[in-house]
Design a protein that fits this description.
By secondary structure, the chain is mostly helical. 82% of the residues lie in helices and 0% in strands.
Length: 375
């Protein structure tokens, strides 16, 4: 297959993941304190918006494949981009808590639809020897989105919250215009292929779910650790988040390449070992350790999506999309449960960062153990 047909759907898929995960999910992280500060929501309400986004994400993941079977992959990708754009526009108006709950929930649905379909659809649309790299390019959209958020949102907030939300809507619109002509168009499965049983791959699902659980601590508390835990200025939080995003880009791109050469199932333990190192570095009591923990956390915690996507293709073949939806759902459920648990632990321990990152390290070690047991 020529290079051009490979790169076009891969970059389009990356744009979908950037919009659905990097923006529709992670852009809220730096906007949260601004919304509380401006009185649009209180702290408890802000936490509810995060939960609504996760709930919507799970619904999108679970429903995306069935919807695509009815109306086609391209139309569902369009719907996901449209929902993300509309949710940002709606959030530019201070309509009250339940207004934001509705639209942050729909932003989560958008992210779930885009995440469930983009990677498997691109892989099914390119030559077999390109699938590992294609998966890495697609999943690099998540890390790119985190880095864009870290740079763009502070600038947009200079014009106020409404401008920030509106600017994010424009960004999604531009991504949609650029990606839409090159949406992946995977061939329909033959009846015999569609009837094939999907491997359980229980240990792969367990390792990926535990990886997501272990990454809750850095994904939620890393910036707070830098400012309130290590005494760095507020501006350092943006730098830490950008480093996390840059590490995620490197982890997903390299993950796709390594999975293409070694195989996804062999690559998963390598990425999980890096995740363990990232959590351990975050526990060191010196602020320079964060300059290591942030990029390593992004490299492993988001980069593991690329190698897991490749592992799903190896384990399930033409039914990889079904297995990937199960893996993504396991990741989302694990993160939601652990996020609530860590919030309670953080409060009960007098806001101890060591406690929440210690749990993250333990869960990451459990993920690595599960991945190694597969071999």
């Amino acid at each position: 297959m020529a290079a051009q047909p490979f790169w076009r759907p891969a970059l389009a898929g990356a744009g979908a993941v950037l919009a659905g995960i990097g923006l529709a999910r992670f852009a809220y992280v730096p906007l949260f304190p601004a919304m509380v500060g401006e009185g649009w929501v209180d702290g408890a309400g802000g936490g509810l918006l995060g939960a609504a986004n996760l709930a919507g994400y799970l619904l999108g993941v679970l429903g995306g494949r069935a919807l695509a079977a009815r109306v086609g992959v391209a139309r569902v990708l369009d719907a996901g981009m449209a929902l993300a754009l509309l949710s940002f526009l709606a959030c530019a108006a201070p309509g009250g808590l339940w207004w934001f709950v509705l639209w942050r929930g729909l932003a989560g649905v958008a992210g779930g639809l885009l995440m469930a379909l983009a990677g498997p659809s691109v892989q099914a649309s390119v030559a077999p020897e390109r699938r590992g790299m294609a998966g890495g390019v697609v999943m690099a959209g998540a890390g790119s989105g985190v880095a864009v958020v870290g740079l763009l949102v502070p600038l947009l907030l200079l014009g106020g919250l409404s401008l920030a939300w509106g600017g994010l809507a424009v960004t999604v619109g531009l991504l949609w215009v650029a990606a839409r002509p090159h949406w992946p168009n995977p061939p329909a499965l033959a009846a015999a292929e569609a009837a094939q049983a999907v491997p359980r791959a229980a240990r792969l699902l367990l390792a990926y779910g535990l990886s997501g659980a272990g990454m809750v601590a850095p994904m939620v508390y890393l910036a707070d650790l830098a400012v309130r835990g290590r005494g760095l200025p507020v501006e350092a939080a943006s730098l830490v988040w950008v480093l996390f995003g840059l590490g995620a880009v490197a982890g997903t791109l390299l993950g796709g390449r390594v999975a293409g050469r070694l195989g996804g199932r062999r690559a998963v333990p390598i990425w999980l070992a890096v995740q363990v190192a990232a959590l351990a570095a975050a526990l060191l009591p010196w602020w320079p350790a964060l300059l290591l923990a942030a990029p390593l956390g992004g490299f492993a915690g988001i980069g593991v999506t690329a190698v897991t996507l490749a592992a799903a293709r190896e384990a399930a073949g033409v039914q990889a999309g079904v297995l990937w939806v199960r893996a993504t759902a396991a990741y989302a459920v694990a993160q939601a449960v652990v996020a609530f648990a860590l919030a309670g632990l953080f409060a009960a321990t007098g806001e101890s960062h060591a406690a929440v990152f210690g749990v993250g390290l333990a869960l990451s070690l459990a993920a690595l153990t599960a991945a190694l047991a597969r071999r």
